[in-house]
C-alpha cells in the first residue's frame, strides 16, 4: 500500500458516511485492510443497527460487534435479516455474516489464568476468528497449578502468537513469555478484589514482565489483543 | 520446535551456567531462538564481563548489552578482545560482534515524538538490528507539527512493524495506529515534567489508544519494543 | 469595571438572596457579566425551582441549568410558567428563556473524538449558546481515522476558540492544538474503561499536550469549557 | 487563514528543516502565527544554537528559549552574535532579539501565591512579552493574607486575561476566578512538600475550582500559560 | 485525670460490656469525659438498639448515633421508649435524650462552601451540640462569591473554633484560616466529580493549606470535626 | 515430600480433571497437603456444584467453599446430598463434610478491630477450622479502647499464630505485633470511608508496621490469612 | 476582635511592606495575634534577613524562622545583631529574640514514634515554645514497644494538647487518641521506605484513625502542628 | 509465656534504658524471645554504638544491625571491641558476636528472581541466621527462565519456610507458592524501572497472588521477611 499526493486529496474527499451521531469509516477496509469494528458499549441498539447497515451497504461481508447484550444482538440480526451469526453471551462479542477462511502464518493461542478470565479471552478469540485466524483456547491454566500449563507445552511452543489473559497478579504472561519464542500479547483483566484495584495489579505486572517478547493492551481489552494478534499473524 | 518428555528432563539437567551471582541461560538461544541479553543497569563491569565471557564460550557470536556507560563498554570490549563493536552513548546500548544479516518480513520503523525520546528509540533500534532486522529511523515527528509525520507516510505504510516512541501525552502512537495496517508497538517515555509523573501520562495514553493494533511496553523500555518487533518481523 | 472602596462596602451589604439552603448570588451578573448558573446535580427539583425563581425576580432573562433530568426540567418549566425552553436530554443541560443574540469575536467550534463524548460536548455547546456565542459542532472526528478531522480543516482554522472533547487517550486536543492558531480548551471525558481510570488518562494526556495553546478543565466539565470559551470569545 | 487542497500538498512538501536530531518547524509562524519556541531542557547548548540559527535564517526576528542556564544562554548569544537579549536567571527564560511592540486587547496580569512561585510566573510573563503583550506582575498575593490581593482589585478587574500561579493548595486561582470577569489561566506549581506530591494538590485544586472561567495547564508550565494567554489576548 | 497503677488493674478488670458482636466501652465517659458514640453505618437496627440500651443502662443520658436512616431511628426510639429526639434526615445524625446545656469557651462556627456540603456540616454541628457546645451555621459561603463570606466576618472573628466544610477545591479552609485567629478544623467532602476523585482534591488542598492554624479530618467526617472542635472548645 | 524426574512426568500426565470452564486440581491434596478450595465469587451455582462433585469423587472428605450466598449453599448441599454443613451467612464461607480433628502446634487467634471486620475474620476462622486448627476469636478489640485488647493478653501471648483483622488505620496489627512473640498475619479490610480508599489505608499501614513479625495478605482476604496461619501452625 | 466596615478599608490600605520578592504581612500580629513566621526553605539568606529586618522594624520581639541551615542562621543573626537565639540543627528551626513567657491553659506534649521522627517533633516543639507554650517532649515511644508509652500515661492524661509525630504506619496517633481526653494533632512523617511512599502510609493512617479527637496536618509539618496546638492552648 | 497483673506493673516499671534520643527496649528478649534489632538507616554511628553498647551491657550475645555502611560497621566493631563479626557489604547487614546454633523445624530457603534482588535477599538470610536458623540461598531463579527454578524443586519441596524475593512483576512468589506446601513470605523489591513505580508492581502482584499460602512484607524489607520466617520456623 502506498500514499501518493492524490491519495491524500481522495482521503480528504470521501472517506466516511456521516450519520449525525457517528462518522462511519467505510474507507477503513481499504486503508487498513480491516473494516471498522462496532464497539457496542454505550450505543443504543438503533445506533448499532444503523452503523451495521452502513457497513453492509459499503460492501462488508463480515461485521464484528463487541460488548452487546442478547437483546441488542437479536434486534440487529433481525434488522439486517442476516443468516450467519456467532454470538458469545459471556463477552457480548458478535460476528454477523460468515467467518472468513483462516489465513495467516499459524495458530493464535488464547490462554487464561482462571475461569473468570474467560469472557475477556472469548472477546479476543472471536475477534481473531472474525479476522480470519485459526484460534486455540487454553483456559484455566494459571500458575497456582503450573502443571496444568505444562500439559500444553506443545501448543504453546508451536503457536505463531499467544494471547495471555490473566487477572490478579497476572504472572501467566511472564511464565509463558519465558517459555516460548513467539510474540505474547498480555491482557490484564479486572478479575480480583482489594489491592487488585480493578486490574491495576495485573496491568503493572505485565508491563514489568521479566520475560522479553511481551507487550500489553488495556485492562479487559480482549478485542485489542485479538486484533493485534491477527495483524501479527498476517505480517 | 516441540517439547517431548525427554526435553523436560534435559531442561532440568543442564540449561545454565551458575556464576554465583547469576545463572546464565546459555540454553536460551536453543529454546527461544535468541541468546540471553545482558541488562547492564545495576551490574558491575566485572559481572558484565564474566557473563559476556560465558555467552561467548557457549558459542554466541553477537552479544547485546543494554544500559552501560562508556567506561564499562571499554572494559568489556578490552576484556573480551573483540573486534566489532557498536555502541550508542545516548542509550548505553552495545552490540559486541558483527551484526547478523538482516532477515524477517520487512522493515521495522522506529519513530519518535521529539528529540528527547531519541535515546529510548536508539535502544529499540539497536536491539532490532542486533536481532537481524532492517531498521528505519523517523525522529522528531510528533503531533505538535503533524505535517512532519505525513511527510513519511510512505515509510509508515510499507513498514512490517512500527515502534512509536513518545513522552508527554504520547499521542503519536494513536495517530500512527490510525493510519497504518501493521502492528504498532508503543513505548511511553519519561520525557516531560509535572503531571507527566515520570511517564505515567504517556503510558496511560497509549494503553487507552482509540486506534486498534497498538500494544504497549514499559516506560522507557526500548529494548522490549525492539525485541517484540523482531519477533513479529520473524513470525 | 472598577472597584472603589465604596464598592467593597456595597459588596458587603447586599450581594445575595439567602434561601437558607443556598445564598443566591444575584449580584454576579453585575460583577462578572454573567448571571449565576444553577448546577443541578445533587439539588432537589424544589430547590432548583426556588433558585431559578430568585434569579427571574432579580431580572435574569436567560437561565442556564446543568445536569437535570427531564422530570426536574418539566417541574421547573411548569413552576416558572416559562415559554422558551431548550433542553438536551443526553447532557441534562437546560436553557430557560430566549437564547441571547450571538456576540463575540467569532465562532466556537466544539469537536469530539467519538460518539460517546457527545453529552459532554452538548453541555459545552449549550452553555456557549446560552452565553451568546455562535457554535459549530464537529462530532466523532477522533484520531483513529484522522482523515475525518482533516475534512473540517477550514472550520478549525477559522474558529475563534475550539473546545476539544475526548476520552480514552485524549489525543484529539494535541492534534488540533498543533494545527490551529486559536486557543484550545480541552475537556477530558470519562469515556473508556480499564486503565482509563474514569478519565484520568485523557486528563493527564491533555495536561501534557506537546502542542502549545491548550488549557484543560475538569473531567466531563463541558459547562466549564463552554463558559471559558465564551469569556475568551468576548475578551 | 484557510487550508485549500493545495495547502495540504505544500504542507507535505517543505514545512521544516531537518537537523538530524530535530525537525525544525520553520513553517509554524505561517501556520500558527507564532514561530517555534525552543524548549531548552534536555538539549545540549550546541543543539540549541543550531536550532536558533535555523530559525534566524528562516527570518524569525524574536526567538524565545525556555529553561536554559546562564552558560547556555551565553553560548547561544555569542554564537548568534545577537545584540538584544532578555534573560531571567530564575526561570531560565530567554528572549533573543528585540521584544515585539505590545498588541492585543489589553493587559495580561500574572499573579503568584508566594515568593517561591516567581520563577514559574516569570516564564509566563516573559513568554507573553515575547509574543507582544502588555504584562503586569502581582507577586506574593496568596490567600493566607487575602488583604494583599484585594489591594490590587483594580488591576485584576481591568485585565484582559489573568495567569494565576500557585503551589500548595492553589486556592489563588479560585479566589481570583470568583472576583473577575475575564478568563483565568491557572498554573499549579510544585512548590510545597509532603502531601503536595510535587504539585498534584495544586493541580487537582485548580481543576476542581468552584469558580467558572478557570482553565489549567501542566504543573510549573509557565510557558504554556503565557502562550495561551497571548492567544486569548489576540483573539 | 491521672492513671495510678491501680487504675491499670481496674482498666483491665471491667471496662466494657461484651455483646458478642461488640464490646461496648461503657467506661469511656469516665476515661475520656464523653460517652461512646454509635457509628451507625454497617450495623443492623437490632445491633444499634442493643448498644444504645447498654449505654442507657450504664447511665448515659445523651446518646449520639451517626449515619442511620429514618427507619432505624424510629426503631431505636421506639425500642428505648425515649422522649427527646433530635434527628437530621440529610446526615442521618441522631441525638437521643435532651441536649446538654452549652458549655465551653465560646461558639463553634460551622461553615460550608456550597449547598451540597450541608449534610456533612450537619453531622458536625449536631455532634458539637450533643457534646454541649453553642453552634452557629454559615452555609453556602464558598470562594466563588467571596463577598458572601465577608458578610459574616464578625461571626468568624469571634468564634472559638471554626469547622470549614468544603468539597471541590476546598479553598474555603485556607481563606478562613488566613482571616481568623482561632483553630480551624477542615473537613474535605466528596462533593464534586471527575478529578475530584471522591474528595481527594479537597483533602490534599486542605492538608497543603498556606494558612497556619488549619488541621484536617477524613473526607466527609463531620463527626470527627465536631468532636475535635468540642474538645478544643472545652480545653 | 520430594520431586523425582518421574514426578515431573507424572505431573505432566494426569494432574487434573478438565470440566471445560475449569481444570480442577484434584492432585493438589497430594502435592500441597490441602485439597483445592472453591472460590465461589463469580461462579454460577451449577459450576460450583460440578467442581465440588469432582472433588468428592476424587476422595476429598472436607470441602471449603468461600463467598457464596445462602441460595448457592442450599443448591450445592442438596446436589451433593451431604449431611454435615457449616455455613456463615456474613462471610459466605461454607464447609461441606465434617470438620477435621484439630492438629498443629497450638491455637490460632483471630482478632478484629471492630464489629464491621467480623465477616472477614469469620472467613479466616472457618478456613483455619476446615484445615484442622484450633481457633479462638477476639472481636472488637481495636486500639480506640486499648484496654479491651489488654483484657486478652493471656490469649495473645499463648497463641501459635495470630490473625489481626482491621480496617480504617489498621493499627491493631502493629500493637499486637509489638506485644507477642508468634507470627502475626495482618488482614486489612475495606471497612471505612473517604481517605480509606477501599482498604488502602489499612493495607499501607500494615505493610509499614513498626513491629517485626507481621506479614500481610490482600485487602479482605480472610481466606488467605486462615490458610497461611494453618500452614504455619502445621510447620 | 471585631471587623467593622472601617476595618476593611484599613485592611485595604496599609497591611504589608512590599519587598518586591515578598509582601511582608506586618499586620498579621494585629489581625491574628501572631506575627508572620518565615518559612526558610527556598529563600536565599539575603531574602530571609531582609524579611526578618522588616518584622523587627515593625516591632516584633520574637521571630520564628523554620527550615534554615546553620550558615543562614549565622548570617541572619549577624545581620540583625541579635543576642538571644535558639537554633535546632536537626530541624533547622530558629527563634530570634527571647522566648515569650509561657501562657495558655496547660502543657503541650510532643510525642514521637521513633528516633528518626525527632526533627519534625523539634520543629513542632520550638514553634510552640516561640508562641508562648509550656512544652514536654516524649520521644521514641512508638507502639512496637507499647510499655514505653504507658510509662508516660500521667503526662499524656494531663496535657492540654498532644502532638503525635510518627512515620511508618503512624499508629501512635490512634493509640494516644484512644487514651486521652484532650485534642490530638497528628503529624505524619516521611520516615520509612517502600510502601511508605514518602509519608503517605502514615498520613492515610492518621486520617482514618478509629480514635475520635484526632486531626491531621501535612506530612513533616511540625510547624503547622505546633502552631495549631498553640492556638488550641490559648482558646 | 503468660502475663499476670504483676507482669503489667513490672512492664510499666523498668522495661527500657533511656538514651535521650532513643528508649532501648532491653526487655524485649524476655518479652518476645528476640533482642531488639538496630535499624541503622538514619542513625549516626555514635548513636548506633551507644545503642549496641546498651544491648551488650544488658546481656545480649548476638546483635543484629541492618543497613549500615562499612565505615559505621568498623566504628562500632572497634568501639565494642568485638571479635566475631559478619558483615555483608551489599545489604549493609551486620551481626556482632557469634551466630547462635541453628534451631527450629527445618531450613529457610531464600530465593531471588534476579541478580539485583540479592542485597534484599542477603538482609533476609543474615537476619534468619542471626536468629538461629539454617538458611539455603537460591539466587537468580526468576520465571524468565523457569527451568532454573525447577532445578531446585527438591530444595523448595523440603523447606520449612520460603522467602521469595523479586522485583519487576514479582511472579516468582506465585510460581513457588503454587508448587510447595510450606508458608511463603514474599518480599517485593524496588528493582525495575518505569511502571514498576519503585516496587509497587511487585508489591501489588504479590498481594494478589493466585497461590494460597503467600503473605507479604514491605518493599525491600528483607529483615522483616527473615524475622517472620524465623518466628515461623520456631513456632
Write up what this structure looks like.
The structure is a homooctamer of 235-residue chains. Chain A has 235 residues and is of the alpha/beta class. Chain A has two domains: 87 residues, no CATH class; 127 residues, 3-Layer(aba) Sandwich (Rossmann fold). The first copy, chain A, has ten helices and eleven strands. In chain A, strands 8-7-9-10-11 form a five-stranded parallel beta sheet, with helices on both faces. In chain A, a hairpin with a 4-residue loop joins strand 5 and strand 6. In chain A, helix 3 runs parallel beside helix 4 and helix 5 runs parallel beside helix 10. The longest helix of chain A is centred in the first third of the chain and has 13 residues. Chain A is globular. At the A-B interface, helix 7, strand 11 and helix 10 of A face helix 7, strand 11 and helix 10 of B.
Amino acid at each position: 500500500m502506498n500514499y501518493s499526493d492524490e491519495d491524500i486529496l481522495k482521503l480528504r474527499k470521501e472517506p466516511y458516511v456521516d450519520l449525525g451521531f457517528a462518522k462511519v469509516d467505510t474507507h477503513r477496509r481499504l486503508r487498513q485492510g480491516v473494516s471498522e469494528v462496532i464497539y457496542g458499549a454505550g450505543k443504543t441498539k438503533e445506533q448499532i443497527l444503523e452503523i451495521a447497515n452502513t457497513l453492509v451497504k459499503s460492501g462488508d461481508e463480515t461485521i464484528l460487534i463487541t460488548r452487546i447484550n442478547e437483546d441488542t444482538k437479536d434486534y440487529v440480526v433481525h434488522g439486517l435479516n442476516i443468516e450467519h451469526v456467532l454470538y458469545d453471551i459471556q463477552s457480548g462479542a458478535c460476528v454477523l455474516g460468515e467467518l472468513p477462511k483462516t489465513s495467516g502464518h499459524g495458530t493464535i493461542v488464547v490462554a487464561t489464568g482462571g475461569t473468570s478470565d474467560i469472557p475477556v479471552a472469548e472477546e479476543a478469540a472471536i475477534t481473531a476468528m472474525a479476522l480470519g485466524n485459526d484460534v486455540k483456547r487454553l483456559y484455566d491454566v494459571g500458575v497456582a497449578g503450573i502443571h496444568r500449563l505444562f500439559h500444553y507445552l506443545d501448543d504453546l511452543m508451536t503457536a505463531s502468537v499467544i494471547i495471555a489473559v490473566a487477572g490478579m497478579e497476572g504472572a501467566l504472561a511472564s511464565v509463558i513469555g519465558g517459555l516460548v519464542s513467539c510474540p505474547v500479547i498480555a491482557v490484564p483483566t479486572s478479575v480480583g478484589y482489594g489491592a487488585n484495584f480493578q486490574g491495576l495489579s495485573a496491568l503493572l505486572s505485565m508491563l514489568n514482565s521479566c520475560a522479553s517478547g511481551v507487550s500489553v493492551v488495556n485492562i479487559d481489552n480482549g478485542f485489542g489483543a485479538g486484533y493485534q494478534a491477527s495483524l501479527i499473524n498476517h505480517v
